[in-house]
Amino acid sequence: MATASAQPAVQQEVNPLVGGLERLPVHPTAMTIFGATGDLAHRKILPALYNLAHDGSLPERFELIGIARSPHSDEDFRDLARASIQRFSRTKPDPDVLDALLADLRYLPGSFDDADVYRRIGQTLTEFEERDGQPLNRIFYLSTAPQFFPVIVTALGEADLARREGVETHIVIEKPFGYRLDSAKELNRTVLEVFEEDQVYRIDHYLGKETVQNLLAFRFANALFEPVWNRNYIDNVQITAAEDIGIERRASYYEHAGALRDLVQNHMLQLLALLAIEPPASFEANRLRDEKVKLLESIPPPTPRDVSKVALRAQYGPGVSEGEPVPGYRQEEGVDPHSRTETYVALRLGISNWRWAGVPFYLRTGKRLSRKVTEIAVTLKPVPHLALKTEGSVGVLPNQVILMVQPDEGVSVSLGAKIPGPRLRIRPVNMEFHYGTSFMSQSPEAYERLILDAMRGDATLFTRNDEIEALWGIIDPVLSVWREDTRSPIRQYAAGSSGPAAASSILLPGNEWRRL
Amino acid sequence: MNAIAADTNAAADVWTEQDTTPAAIEEALRDLLRVRHAANQGLAPARVLNLVVVVDCDSKQEIASRLRRVGRYHASRTILCAVQPGRSTLDARVVMSYEQPEDPAGFGLIREIVEIDMGPDHLDRLQTIVDPVIVSDLPTMVWSPHGYDQTFEALSELTDVVLFDSDDEPDVTDAFSRARSQLHLSYVVDLAWLRTTPWRERLAASFDPRQRRPALYEITEFAIRHCVGASASALLLAGWLCSRLDWEASALSATDADTFEGTISADGRMVELRIEPVEQEAPGLAGVTISSAVGFSLSLDRGPGGLRAHAERDGQERTWKVLGHSRGEAGILGEGVRQALLRDPTYGPALAAAARFR
Q1: Angle between helices A149-158 and A181-194 (to 10 degrees)
Q2: Which residues between 95 and 154 in chain B have a beta carbon less than 8 angstroms from any beta carbon of chain A?
Q3: How far is the C-alpha of B115 from the C-alpha of B90, rounded, in Å?
Q4: Fewest Cβ atoms nearer than 10 Å: which of A15, A516, B18, B101?
Q5: How far apart (Å, rounded) are the C-alpha atoms in residues A482 and A260?
Q6: How far is Cα B275 from Cα B41, in angstroms, rounded to an integer?
Q7: What totals of helices (H) and strands (E) does chain A contain, helices first?
Q8: Distances (CA, A) of A167 to A29, A66, A134, A164, A457
Q9: CB pair distance less than 8 Å for B106 and A408
C-alpha cells in the first residue's frame, strides 16, 4: 500500500479537488467583530455573513464572536443579529440556515481598552479550536469608531493574538483610515508594529462593487479603448458621485468628516486610479496595488496657493427634494448651526505621467443634489477636421464614454450619427450597455465579496499602507487650507439642485460639467 | 399581425397567430419590441442567451412553469417548441414581459418567450423554424426533456450548449453515452452534474487544510447515498473523484438500477466504491462517506439548513453543520441556464470515468 509520504510534496501542496469549482474552499475561520452592535455590523456585516452562509460560501467550520461595550448576553446578541439579518439580508433568510449560523455565536461585552476582553477572546478562540478539533484562521474585524482602531490593534498585540503558528490571522479595518495624512501614517505605524502588512485588510467597500471591478475588465479586456486612452485623444475626465439624500442622522460622523474625506479621499480617488492606471503584469494583489500607488503618486497634490483655483466646497441650504421641502445642512439635527463642514466638493486634479499629462480629471460629489448618480465621463477630443455641415442640427459633439456605476450599471458611448432625411446632418446618439441586460446573475453585496476575500487572504480589493498614504497625500493640502480658512463664507446651494454654480470656476476653459 | 397589446401599464405584451410562419414570428418580435420601447425608452431587452426547448405538447405548461420558477436566471429569449401528434401547421404565441422601472430615470428588462406549436414532421426541419426566431450573436442553449433526440442534430449548426438531465433518462448508460457524444459537438450542461456541485465543493473544502491532504491520497472507501432516480448524479460524483485523483475507473457490479458497488484501483491501492439509494424526498444526492487509511473518515448528509458533517479522526468523533440553503430543483434548472455562459473543464473527465463504471 502506498503511503502519504510517497506522494510528491508538490502534489500534496495543491488540492486536486478544487479544479473547475466556482466557489473555492475557505479555511475554517473564526471571525471576531469589534463594534458588533453598531450600525455597520447591523446593516452590512451580519447580513453579508448570512448570505455567504446561505450560498454555501462560508468555510465548513465558521465561528463568530461579537465584541461591543453594551452589556448583552449571547442570547441577546443572537436576537439582535437575527433581526439585522431578517431586515437587511439580500436573500430571504432560510430559518434553518439562520439558526445554524447563529447557534454557536458568542458575545463578549467590554471596553475596547480592557485587557480582560482580549483574554476572553483568546480563551473563546481556544475553546472553538478544541471543539472543532482543528486550528482556525482568525479574522479581527474592526467596525468601530476610528478612534478605537489603534486601541484595539495595540491590545490585540499585547494579548498575543496578532499571530499564531499554523494559522493565518488577518485584521480588517474599516474606513476612515486616518483623519489626515499624518494620522493615517500614525495609524499605519501602530498597525504595522503589531501586524505584518500582508495581514492587514483596509476596507473600502466601493472596491467590492462589481461595477468598480469591471473598470479593470473594461480597460484591460477590450482592445477597442486602449489606443485612445491617453492624452492624445482624451480631453477631460469627470468623476461624479451625487447623492439625492442628506446626511440621514449621521451628523456626528459627517460634521467631522465632510464630503472630501467621506467620498473623495477614498471612493472617488480609487475610481480615478482604476480608470487611469497602467496595465498591471497580473491581477495578483500587489501587482495591481503597485500600479495604483504609482498612479496616485503621479498626481501632484494642489499647492496651498492653488487650492482656491482647483477645489471648491459648498453646503446645501434649504430646498426642495422630490417635491418636498427639506432643511439645509445647518438645520439638520445634530449639526452646528455655524458648521463649516462641506457637503459638496468639486476638485480638479492632473496626472504627471506620459499617458495623462495635461488631461484634467474633475471630481465632484455632493449631498442633496438633484439625483443620485455615480459615473465616470470620459470626453474625447473633437475630430480634427469637420467636413460635415452642422447647420440645422446640434452638430458633431466630442465622443463620450460614460462608465455608469450606480444606480444603473453599464457603459454608454456617444457617437455622431446622421439624422434621417435628405441632408447630411449629425446629432449624437448613445450606444448603451446595461449589466442587467447582459448578465443573469445578481451582483453580490460588496461586503460579501470583501469578507470572503479577507478570509481567503486575497488583498487585491483592499488598500495597502502606501496606497492609503498616497490617497491622503493628494487631499491633505486642500484639507489644510480649508481648515485654516475660518472667515470666508461657505457657499450654499439649494437642496435638490445640481450644486453650486461656482463649481464651474475650477474648470479649464472649454470644459463644462456634465449635467447630473 | 393580429394582436399586439401595448398598454403601458401591462406587464406583458402578447402576440398570437395560428397557421403562422417563422418570418411572421420574427416580425412580431421586432414589432413588439419597437412598440414597447417607444412607449417606455427605459425598457431594454435582455441579451444574454437564447434557450430553445422542445417538449411534448401535453407537457408544455409544466415545462413553462418550471422555467418560470428558475429565479433570476432566465434566458433572455426562450423558444418553447411543443410537439403535437398529427399537427401540420405552426401556431405561435409571443409574450414580451417586462419590469417597469421603479425610478422613472432607471431601466427595466424585457424578456421574450416564443411558444410554437408544431407537428412531429417539423422536427427534421427545426433549424429553418428556429433560426429566424433566435437573437443572432447570442449563445443558444437547446433542451429536449422529452426525448426528441433529432432536435440536437436538426439544430446542430445553431447550438452552442446542450442542456441534459442524465438523471431523467431511464437508462444511465444511455444517458452517459448521449452526453459523451454531444460533448464532441457542443458544450454540455448536465443537471445531474449540477446536483453534485455542493458535494464537490464540500469535499474539496474538507481536504483543503494541508493537514487533511494526506488522507486524500489514502482513501480506502467512498460511499454515495442518493435518492432513487439520481444514480447518474451519484456516478458522476464518483467519476469526479476518480478523475481528480487519477484513479482507474472500472466497471462496478449493479445489484439493481440504482445500486452499484465494486473496487477500483487508486495508484496501487484499492478503493471500495458503493453507490446506493436511500429514502429521501428531495431529488439528488443524500450523503457521502469517505474513509481513509490514515484514521480519518468523513460523512456528509443532507439536512435542514445545510449538510450534517460527521468526522472521525484517530478515534475522536465530531459532528457539525456545514451551512447552505438547498437550491431545490427550480434552482438547479436556473443554475443550468446560468452555466450556459461558463465552461467547467471537469465535467468531461468525470463523465468519462462515470461511463466506465457501467
Answers
A1: 20
A2: 103, 105-107, 109
A3: 10
A4: B18
A5: 11
A6: 55
A7: 16, 17
A8: 9, 21, 10, 6, 12
A9: yes
Q: What is the mean pLDDT of chain A?
A: 91
- Tell me which DSSP letter residue A175 carries: S
Cis amide prior to A16 (ω within 30 degrees)? no
Closest CA to A178 of A189, A164, A163, A167: A189
Nearest CA in chain B to A133: B318
Q: What is the pTM of this model?
A: 0.89
Cα A389 versus chain centre, distance: 46
For B204, the closest of A13, A21, A442 (CB atoms) is A21
Q: Confidence class of residue B65 from pLDDT cuts 50, 70 and 90?
A: confident
pLDDT tens digits, A97-139: 999 999 999 999 999 999 999 999 999 999 999 999 889 999 9
Give A478's contacts (C-beta < 8 A, 6+ positions apart).
Answer: A260, A302, A307, A311, A347
Of chain B, the percentage scoring pLDDT greater than 70 comes to 97
Q: Which residues contact A482 (CB under 8 A, 6 or more apart)?
A: A260, A307, A311, A313, A340, A342
Task: Read off the pLDDT of residues A462-514 as tens digits, 9 standing for 90 and up.
Answer: 999 999 999 999 999 999 999 999 999 999 999 999 999 999 999 999 999 99
What's the farthest any 2 CA atoms get from each other in chain B? 75
Using a pLDDT cut of 90, give the percent of chain B over it: 66
Q: Is A170 one of the catalytic residues?
A: no
What DSSP element (H or E) covers A108? strand A106-109
Residue B212 has pLDDT above 90, yes or no: no
**What are the residues whose beta carbons fall under 8 Å from the beta carbon of B250, sequence distance 6 or more?**
B262, B264, B265, B356, B357
What is the distance, to the nearest Å, from the Cα of residue A208 to the centroid of all Cα atoms in its chain? 7
Distances from the Cα of B39 to the Cα of A429, B7, B36, B42, B46, angstroms: 19, 9, 5, 9, 17
At position A202, the amino acid (one-letter code) is R
Q: Quick one: average pLDDT of B221-230?
A: 95
A440 to B49: CB separation less than 8 angstroms, yes or no: yes
Closest by CA position to A111, among listed A146, A67, A165, A74: A67
Lookup: cell for A446 = 460588496
Residue A351's Cβ-side half-sphere holds a number of Cα atoms within 13 Å equal to: 24
CB contact under 8 A, A440 and B341: yes
Q: What are phi and psi of A437, to 5 degrees?
A: -85, -15
Question: How buried is residue A435: exposed, middle or buried, by Cβ count under 10 Å (0-12/13-18/19+)?
Answer: middle
- How far apart CA A199 and CA B151 sit, in angstroms, is 55
Alpha-carbon gap, residue B138 to B79, rounded angstroms: 14
Q: Longest C-alpha distance within chain A, in Å?
A: 88
All residues of chain A having their beta carbon less than 8 Å from the beta carbon of residue B42 are none
Query: How wide is the angle at C-alpha B137 spanned by C-alphas B136 and B140, nearest 5°?
Result: 80
More confident residue, B72 or B65: B65
**CB count in 10 Å sphere of residue A95:** 12
Which residue carries 457539525 as its cell? Answer: B320
- Determine the number of helices (DSSP H) and then strands (DSSP E) in chain B: 11, 17
Catalytic, out of A267, A338, A385, A434: A267
Query: Distance from CA of residue B220 to its chain's centroid?
Result: 31
Give the ipTM: 0.89
* Cell numbers found for residue B281: 424526498
Instruction: Please answer whether residues A485 and A477 qualify as being in contact, where contact means their C-beta atoms are separated by less than 8 angstroms.
Output: no
Q: Which of B204, B207, B242 is nearest to B222 (CA)?
A: B242
Please report the DSSP string for B103-155 in residue order: STTS-EEEEEEEEEEE-GGGGGGHHHHHTTTSPTTS-EEEE-TT--THHHHHT
| B 274-303 residues inside an 8 A Cβ radius of A | 293-294
Q: What angle do CA A48, A53, A58 make, to 5 degrees?
A: 95
Orientation of helix A210-220 relative to helix A269-276, angle to 10°: 20
